[in-house]
């Protein structure tokens, strides 16, 4: 099966919902479950990106010690502080019930950026998949997901996963070098394993759906290989899911907007040296231009 280049033209088959007058609830409710004591900024990057992608309402669930600061940094969001373990990770056992309640009230949920503890985070992801929402599983939520693949596959059609090569290698129980040698084949295997849309991140990005469709984005430039860039991508996708896009459309738009924001900043600032926090601010204009 041939692949489709991911361009502004190919996105016309996946139109964004048109902004209309009405309440913020009409643009969807997103929940970002992210961060730890050592990496609190991952939640911030993802959360701001979700808002820039157009989500109407935002909830952030992060470790308790970061919650007050997060509320000041993102005053547009409701912020919930979660119980912590001794090493500053979310205490999944104590937090699961409250997170399920939060997820039940949302249209889209992101789990994983900046979180610690691969097995507990993957278990939490599967627990929350029972909510009536779309999901994006990123970073720590992916590493121990292989043993829980059946639970993810049972919610087929509602999830996007966004691994880089190392995370994909652990997910598929392969060597990283094998994944890097054939990222498309790895993405296809993961889509089949999980029954989910897969965004295989790298110098070029493959987006694969379980039904066999595949798209290739040629990359937004070397400057996107910077700390926090993946958190922004995940935030964009959860914001688009919250707006009502199906998982494949949200993944395609998220990858495109993320990459094109990198291209634009590279032209304005330089090929390297721009920051992940600068990417979301470019997104609204890019959406307007791409939609025509």
Automatic annotation (TrEMBL):
Catalytic activity annotation: (6S)-NADHX + ADP = AMP + phosphate + NADH + H(+); (6S)-NADPHX + ADP = AMP + phosphate + NADPH + H(+)
What EC number(s) are associated with this protein in UniProt? 4.2.1.136
> Would you indicate the residue range of the signal peptide?
none
Note whether NADP occurs among the keywords: yes
Domain of life, per UniProt, equals Bacteria
Query: Which keywords does UniProt give here?
Result: ATP-binding, Lyase, NAD, NADP, Nucleotide-binding
Query: What region holds the YjeF C-terminal domain?
Result: 7-290
Q: Which residues bind (6S)-NADPHX?
A: 42, 114, 164, 231
InterPro entries reported for this sequence:
CARKD, Ribokinase-like
EC main class here is lyase
Q: Which cofactor does it need?
A: Mg(2+)
Q: Which PANTHER family match?
A: ATP-DEPENDENT (S)-NAD(P)H-HYDRATE DEHYDRATASE, ATP-DEPENDENT (S)-NAD(P)H-HYDRATE DEHYDRATASE FAMILY MEMBER
Instruction: Describe the subunit structure.
Output: Homotetramer.
- Similarity-based family: Belongs to the NnrD/CARKD family.
- The protein, known as: ADP-dependent (S)-NAD(P)H-hydrate dehydratase
Which organism was this protein described from?
Methylobacterium radiotolerans
